[in-house]
Each structure stands twice: as structure tokens, then as C-alpha cells.
Amino acid sequence: MTHLGTMVFDMQENTSATTTSVSFDQAADFYDQTRTLSEAMATHGIQVILDRAGPDASILEVGAGTGRIGVPLMQRGADWFGCDLSIEMMRKLRAKQPAARLAQADASRLPFLSDRFDALLAVHVLHLVGPWQAAVREFKRVLHSGGVFVNSWHWRDDAAMSRRLRDYWRKRVEAYGAGWRRPGIQERAELLRELESVGAQLEEIEIDRGLRSVTPREVVDDLAGRMYSDTWQIPQPVLETTVIELRDWATREYGDLDQAVPEEHRLLLDIARFA
After folding, report:
1. Buried b (16+ CB within 10 A) or exposed e, 224-255
2. Pairing mode, strands 143-156 and 102-104
């Protein structure tokens, strides 16, 4: 286990050296430019987290990354702690907040004592965690009785242009015998069932709903540039071939690849309170 900076909270040693979860080390240099924090999350979402955590709460963020959520929470005075698999992502966070309390850890093996925190966040993380069921039990373990786990989900219409392009590309990847699937949770319903099975009371809060415009070329270019983790394990020849096929298909389906297409999106928070 690697520590960044002075650790001032109780620790348990994490001795396992391997994991099936995904590290974002290779995304550290472009992450902040490709995953911006929406205005709704920066205002309403951060406030919901603080409200559900309660006054003077100790908050652990699993998958803290470069601080997209953690930095605004710290700026609001939150008693925030972070952990992540990726040292490189946390180096970016440390540059923004030198006093941030951080540890390298897998979500399924948290290096914290039981009954340690009032709230725990996992913002668009669990699809990257191989043993995600074990992670859920770890979340419950490190939380106080009555503590809350906050998980985020982005909803998009299955008929949306970006979803159709991505689905087509994934099928072409599979046709060449390559894999794109992340190791963790595949569907939100799986998580909700797991949380209920360990005694959590659930609440859903919609943080944002609206239209955003995206061009087919942006979707294709993001895949070609390996901007997202479902591209990282694909051999380069397969990626190049499937991107060409996707570009041709998108041209047939949508014509001008630079024509912006509006898409509905929603940002949801699942709030799980453990009795």
C-alpha cells in the first residue's frame, strides 16, 4: 500500500498486491479535460452529499481520482478522505489540494478500521471494480451504523446517437474476438439488489436532467483516442479497424459527422443508508 502525504487517520494494512479492478494511471494526464464536473453536480449534487452525510461528517471517497468531487467538498469544509488505485490520478489531486488525506487502495480491500466514517462516495466507480460485491460489504464495514453510501449513475436513452455508436462499435470489437467490458458491475439494478441484500434503505435523487449536444465525430474520436476505459485493453489493430468501420457506419446512419445531435441525459444519486 502506498501513502501520499501524512496519514492522520486509523489504518489497516492492505497486503494484497493484485487486483482485477481498473487503475486510471493512463488517464491521469487527460482526465480533467474529458470529465468535467457539471454545474448541477457542483451545486445541487455536492449539497445533497453534504446534507445526507450530516453535519461534521467524516466522508470517504472511494475512487477519489483527481479530486473532481473531493476538491469541491473540501472547499465546502467537508472532513474528506480519499483513496484510489491510481497513484498518478492522486498526484493530480495532491497538486490541487496539498493537504488532502489520501491512500492507495482497492475498493474491495479498504485500509480503514471498521465503523470509521459517516458517509462514503463512489462516483461512477463500481463498473471498474472486479469484486464489486466485496466492495459493497467493505463500504458497509467502514461506515458507522446509520451511515450513508452515495453512488452516482448517468442515464442515457438507449436510442441516443452516442449509445447507438458505442453499441455498434462494441459488437464489432467482439466480432474480432477482443473484449471491451469493464470488470465490475454492468447494470444499476445489480447494485440496488446487492444493497438491499445487506440491509440498506434506498433513496434515489435526480441531480440533473436535460439535453446535451454531441457530434458523431466526437464519439468516434474519443474511441480512437482511447479516452475511456472500455478501449484500453483492445489491441491496436482491432481498435483501428473497428474505428474505421464505426466511422463508415456512422456516416451512413447520420450523414454529416460534424452535425450536433441533441441527447437527453440524467444524473442520478443512489443514497443507501445502512441500519
Report:
1. bebbebbbbebeeebbeebbebbbebbeeebe
2. unpaired
Per-residue pLDDT tens digits of the chain, which is 275 residues long: 334 443 433 333 343 446 789 999 999 999 999 988 889 999 999 999 999 999 999 999 999 999 999 999 999 999 999 999 999 999 999 999 999 999 999 999 999 999 999 999 999 999 999 999 999 999 999 999 999 999 999 898 999 999 999 999 999 999 999 999 999 999 999 999 999 999 999 999 999 999 999 999 999 999 999 999 999 999 999 999 999 999 999 999 999 999 999 999 999 999 999 98
Grid cell, residue 201, equals 434503505
Nearest CA-CA partner of 83 in 58, 62, 66: 62
Q: Residue 207, Cβ neighbours under 10 Å: how many?
A: 19
Separation of CA 232 from chain center: 16
Angle at 132 between CA 128 and CA 135, to 5 degrees: 115
Residue at 9: amino acid letter: F
Residue 71 near residue 96 (C-beta atoms within 8 A): yes
Q: Where are the beta strands (DSSP E) in 131-172?
A: 143-156
